[in-house]
Design goal:
Blueprint: E1 8-9, H1 28-48, H2 54-61, H3 65-90, H4 95-114, H5 119-148, H6 151-204, E2 216-217, H7 222-228, H8 239-260, H9 262-268, H10 273-297, H11 308-323, H12 329-358, H13 363-392, H14 396-423, H15 435-445
Antiparallel strand pairs: 1-2
Helix pairs in contact: 1-5, 1-6, 3-5, 3-13, 4-5, 4-6, 5-6, 6-10, 6-12, 8-13, 8-14, 9-10, 10-12, 11-12, 11-14, 12-13, 13-14
């Protein structure tokens, strides 16, 4: 077996090359990816439409903008911070059991929220527990994809999964607005709980870890990595980790505005409730368009994907200023579409570029870094932006703040890979060319089209 020191087959009953593989296995990766897309469509798509409930909740509980904003803040924070718990749980449970837990938590939290007598219960049940169920959806579906794809095909597959949340965002917005007008927010939550439970359970049927016949594993270095783990410095000792973290934090400190306050902002400048929901739909369409483009072109992009993110943040900075300059309905809808384009690029490539920086074998560590700092931004952002509105009566100061934050995030995000390239080239993973190695692994141990690739890094 060639390059035995670098690659080995996943263990089989006789430790020999597998003789035959069913014809359909090569299609399973994309099939499971599509199932993951539907899963995020329901779970995360509903979370992204929280802004449509904002006015209803504020009116019923007679709360301030800043206090009501804590519901969205806590939910997005739990959506991100939940990674710390969910990645640990996933190490001890199968994908299917993990998904069932997410479906039960999500549906039960919405039912409990619908009976909440005070705002604090909404913050607890929806903010904490539904946010956690959305996190389970994200971690589960992305972990499945990471195990099934390699190199830049992985970025396309992960973006396809994230596209489900975007489709859920704009597909549900007008439906939720219609439901709010006719049956109120409480019954909307109860009906959504039933849909989430049914879809969640259905998708879990297909969430299984790759079997031995599905996996070509780079495993010979595992013992070496384990024996050297005590001598390796902590990941937190590397400056690029903190640059990447700062970029993520500042971006989400600004990006959370369009999840929590965009709908109320559109209403504050004169759009009706229905047109406000249309604005959210148009924004999501722009997001979806970007992700479709990423799915098609990511494997063909000749440079590291991480360099796409600073450009998308600069565009977000320009569009944020544009929202403050007009109240014309047509122009606002055009601007919201343009707002969705760079948002789609950032959301679609955020986790794949984390793998470029930290290595594919550190997928859970990468997810923790990205999502924890995203959670911190989501926790603080709505309170700051809501307080600015309460003190000024306008969302424009919050948008100006977002503009500055996008600029800071763009600069620090660009510095992270540049620091690796010029000051720590042994850790520079974004230019790491492993196509030849994975091709050799594929040629020697090909089993269908599915295998696991793990980058060997010094981190």
């Amino acid at each position: 077996m060639s390059r035995k020191n670098d690659y080995e087959l996943a263990s089989t009953k006789d430790n020999d090359v597998i003789e035959s593989v069913p014809w359909y296995r090569g299609n399973l990766p994309w099939f499971k990816t599509i199932i993951g897309t539907f899963h995020q469509f329901v779970f995360i798509g509903f979370l992204y439409n929280f802004g449509l409930f904002f006015d209803e909740l504020q009116h019923e509980f007679q709360s301030s903008v800043a206090l009501t904003g804590w519901i969205g803040s806590i939910s997005y924070c739990s959506f991100m911070f939940g990674t710390l718990a969910s990645t640990w749980v996933l190490r001890h449970l199968s994908f299917r059991k993990f998904g069932i837990i997410g479906a039960v938590i999500g549906s039960a939290s919405l039912v409990a929220t619908s009976f909440s007598p005070t705002l604090i219960y909404v913050i607890l049940f929806y903010g904490v527990f539904y946010g956690l169920s959305a996190n389970i959806s994200m971690i589960l579906t992305n972990e499945v994809v990471i195990l099934l794809f390699h190199d830049k095909r992985r970025a396309s597959a992960m973006t396809l999964v994230a596209l489900g949340a975007t489709f859920g965002n704009f597909a549900m917005s007008n439906l939720i607005e219609f439901s709010l007008e006719h049956i109120g927010w409480r019954w909307t939550f109860r009906i959504s709980a039933a849909v989430i439970f049914i879809f969640g359970m259905f998708c879990c049927i297909f969430f299984t870890k790759p079997t031995n016949v599905d996996v070509c594993k780079i495993g010979a270095m595992e013992t070496k990595r384990t024996s050297q783990s005590a001598s390796r410095p902590s990941l937190l000792c590397f400056p690029e980790v903190w640059l990447f973290s700062l970029a993520t934090f500042t971006c989400y400190l600004a990006l959370v505005f369009q999840y929590v306050y965009m709908a109320t902002f559109l209403e504050s400048i004169g759009l009706s409730n229905q047109k406000s929901a249309t604005g959210i739909t148009v924004l999501a369409i722009g997001d979806a368009f970007s992700k479709v483009v990423i799915i098609l072109v990511a494997p063909r992009i000749p440079f590291p994907l991480i360099y796409c993110l600073p450009v998308s943040l600069l565009v977000l900075m320009i569009v944020s200023v544009g929202l403050t300059l007009t109240t014309n309905t047509i122009l606002i809808l055009c601007i919201t579409f343009c707002y969705g384009l760079p948002r789609g690029v950032y959301n679609g490539l955020q986790l794949p570029t984390g793998l470029e920086i930290f290595g594919a074998r550190r997928s859970k560590t990468s997810a923790n870094i990205v999502l924890v700092w995203s959670g911190v931004g989501n926790l603080i952002g709505p309170f700051i932006q809501g307080s600015l509105y309460d003190s000024t009566g306008s969302y424009n100061p919050a948008l100006y703040l977002c503009t500055g934050l996008y600029l800071v995030s763009s600069v620090t995000l660009l510095l992270a890979p540049l620091y690796q390239k010029y000051f720590a080239p042994d850790r520079y993973m974004v230019d790491y060319k492993h196509n030849k190695d994975t091709s050799e692994c594929k040629n020697n141990h090909l089993i269908g089209n599915t295998y696991v690739e793990e980058k060997v890094t010094v981190v």
